Amino acid sequence: MRADGTEPGRPVPGGPHPGNVLRDCARDVLEIAEGIRAVSERTATTLSAPDLTAATRRHPRTGLAGCWALLRALTAKPGLGGSAGTAPRGGLTRALGLAGRARGGANLAALVALTSLRLRIAAVLADHPELARTPGMRLLTRALTADRDEDAVRALRVLLRDRTAQRALSGLAPLISELLSVCALLDGRSESGGTLEGGAEAVDLTDQRRRIIATEGSLLGFLRNIEALSTDGRILVQNVRGPDGVVRYVVQAPGTAPGRPRHDAPQDLMGAWRDLRATDSPYTRSLVRALAAHGIPRGAELALIGHSEGGNAVLNLAQDEDFCRTYRVTHAIAVGSPAGDRKPADPRTWIATVTNQYDLVAAPDGHRTEPAAPADPADTTRYHVEYAGPTREFPLCHRLREYIEHLRTLLPVARADLDEALAPYRGPVVRTQAYRLKDHAHPPAGHPFLTLATAPVRTTVGPVDVPVRYYDSAAAHLCFPVDPAAARSLLPDAHWLTPSRLGPRALAVLSLHEHRCTTIGPYTEIALSVLVDDLWRPRPYDAVTDLLRRVDLRRTGRYVLSLAVTTEAARVVAQEVWGQPVLRMRAEADLTGREIRARSEDLGLVVEGRLGPGVRCPDADRALYGRRGTGTVRTLVRAHGRLRLHPGAGVRVRLDTAAAEPLAGQLRRLGIDAARPLFVLACPQFMAHRGGGAELAR
Amino acid sequence: MVTESARASAAHADELLAHIGRLRADADLMDGYARRLRATVTTLDGCPTAPEWGRPALERQAAACASAAVRLRTAAEALLAHARVDRPTRGAMSGPSS
């Protein structure tokens, strides 16, 4: 203990918050990394300068000595360790750049940037330890915990280029800014490269959604409209007749939803990143095209309202001089968006922001106890609301539903102020039109495997598009030989439902799924199923011969005995669309590496172990059976990934509960409550789609 | 022609001197970065949630910055020697002060 009564390593009482200390350090280190990169660029420029080359030709002895010293300064380790930037690439510097990249490109700027990112991650986890379990954070920490810094740089570079991984990373809102900077330092190029394109087409809303859309102009009504659009790449434009009889236009733009695909809408991760920094992005371009398609006359008055990235986009539009010359933007309101100091192109535009200080998207630095002071207190065209919400849990506090609830209950004064400001837009809605935004520059997510025709199916949580598509999932199917009589006893009491036999045994499968990005949101799934014969004409070797058939021609399938999922949407879909016996439980799974682990406290189930060597095998397409009423429901699952067959010796199932139901009792009756599987079919990353359930008269 | 050639030669020499000045300034910057990284180590020492790897990684990188500063100064000196040889008639070429 020190003389002042504090212990080393512990914060001084009343001292700065540890998260803030780490965040400040990360920011400082990132600034240093950018400075080192600039030094590296200048040194590379000097090395390839034509005047130096010319002088070297005149006096080779001293010239070559100078060039050698420069080359050493640029590439030696410890030191700058290689060219880091985008300096003009002559023959020598180009060769150096290529050589550096081939070696992993771990120059000093990249290594320092890596340190900054690690510090930033530590800061985020100090405030939000729950983020450690998110798929994106797991991917990131796995990349950053390589033994050597050079390996970590290489792994991070691979991760940042992986389009599939970007979906998981998009959930890491508090780190996006750092990831952007580190990405630029690792790649040596600006993140805004490439052609920016955008498009929009008018689309109809389903009856169910149309009923939710507000018919009177009000702040909460507009925000509820945005929520109803459910971040699937659509925006809404409403014509509102104001109290003075003038028709004005309200543009409503939703934001991102981590764990859901973006289809072909430009609200993807890179789009969101660009939106944070650039006034010109595919999203904003698409918005402009949607407004043009809506037929809004020049000079008409517009209010722009957005949430999250949608808020960013509308603030960007308010800064766009061309746009503001075409239309009169009277209001721009951003909810849950990182606002910054935005100066509108039209000084008359009223800018408002609403920010929960625990929302890591809107306030990535968090812990701001005082609202940001306006640049000019007398400025009546700015209105900033910053408040501390009742929960710190992220991403819950970023959800628009939470903001709406807070405006309704916690912030009545702010809501009244905003409604008063929107008075010209408070009147009957005379036209509502949705537009789907498109990014022509990129194929839709999951193309071509997941480019499917879909149809909405009515459920108690609203319409669900079927087939349900899984863009980024991991799975491990633990296969156990079990007693056929025990398996039969768990199936419904019908003589035509019999377990398939593989020799003297039946086969039970404990399936673990980690769905990181799906059309019904991310969730974890644990399912127990038994392989069953053809429901009408069972044959002895169907289970084996079916392995050679396409999934849609198979007669056998897996009857789902028990299913646990972690979200309400997944529960409703499994029960109402696929007829499976499902419960909503807490569970988590990490199935992306050699060490697999799944755990559900509610089920008292732990599966963990190390997968041994495996061999590639065909995709795990399957037919699943469930029950609805007196009928059987057959669902086809098509998967596309790199499935591998592993021996099951390294994996163990453990039950930490004495309860009989759910799942635990079935596992005990099958005798697999503490067993090792015969083999494991595992796939750390795959895409899949599940069609609607077809009812069979059995 | 002779005058033109002399002018071009003088311009090349000035460019070289500018490069030398930039290298020296960058060396100072790298020394500054090394100091800031070491200051970050000190700051992190008082932070209970600072990761364990922080101190060694930052000290390694601070040492690399200092080493880079030395190499940049060495390169500046080598280029200065070259500039003197390339244009000996210009007089005392001490180069721009850093």
UniProtKB/TrEMBL annotation, chain A:
Organism: Streptomyces griseofuscus
GO MF annotations, alphabetized: lyase activity
Name of the molecule in the record: Acetoacetate decarboxylase (ADC)
Pfam families, sorted: ADC
Region (Disordered): 1-21
Domain of life: Bacteria
InterPro entries linked: AB_hydrolase_fold, Acetoacetate_decarboxylase, ADC_dom_sf
TrEMBL record, chain B:
Organism domain of life: Bacteria
Protein name: Uncharacterized protein
Organism: Streptomyces griseofuscus
Lineage, uppermost ranks: Bacteria, Bacillati, Actinomycetota, Actinomycetes, Kitasatosporales
